[in-house]
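Q: I have 244 residues here and want to know how they pack in 3D. Can you give me a structure?
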Amino acid sequence: MSYKIEIATSDFNTTKSAVEGGVDRIELCANLAEGGTTPSYGLISQCRNSFDVLLYPIIRPRGGDFLYNKDEFELMQKDIKLAKELGCDGVVIGLLNMDGTIDSIRTAALVELAYPMGVTFHRAFDRCKNPFEALEELIEIGCERILTSGQKPNVNDALDIINELNKKAEDRIVIMPGSGVRSDNIKLIAEKTGCFDFHTSLREKIKSPMQFIHPSFENSEESYTNNHINSAEVKKLREALFAK
C-alpha cells in the first residue's frame, strides 16, 4: 500500500497550488475558518474540469455542530447529487445524534445516495462518544475512510489512539490522520500510527495585491489577505513522507 496525501483547499487558487505540488486527493471546501462548508456548484465544476486529481467536496451545510435538522439533511442530499453529476470521485460527510453517537441511519442514506462515489467521514468522528463503536458502525455503513485527529484538537496528541483505531480497522476502512500534519512530523505520524493516508490544509495567508487600501479597513485581515497554499510546501510534505 502506498502513501496518499489529501489537502483541504478553500478556493480555486489554493486547489491549483495543491495540485501543482503533487497532492493525491483534494477535500474541496468553502469557509475553512469554520472547519469547511459545502463549496459552490461553480467551484466544484471548475475544479473538476481543470484538475485530474481525486476530488472530494465536503457536504456540510453550515459551520458549528454536526447535528442536522430535516431541512439541512435535504440540502446535503441535493449537494451530493450535484457532486455526482459533476463527476466528483467522492464526498466528505459527518453526522451525529444528540447523544454523541453516529447518525447511522442518515449517514447510511447519504452513502447509498453517493454511490458509486466514495465517502469519507470527517472529524465529526472526533466529537462522537465512543470512537471504537463508531468505527464499527461506519465500516458497516460502507464509508471508505475516516478523517480523525484521535478525538484531540491536534493529531500529535493522539498518536496512540489513532494507532489503535488503525489496528482495529484491519484494512476494512482507511484511517486518515489530520489536524496538525506538517512536513516536520508526517513521517513520525506514519511510523507511530501505521496509517497510509494523511490530511492537511497547509493553509497560509498572503497579502492582497490590492493597491488601494481603504483607511478604515487597513487593519482588516479579512479585507486585505487571501488564503494561500504554497505548492513547494506540498512537495516538501511528500518528500518528507516518502523519505527513506
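Q: Anything worth noting?
A: The mean pLDDT is 97. The longest helix spans residues 70-85.
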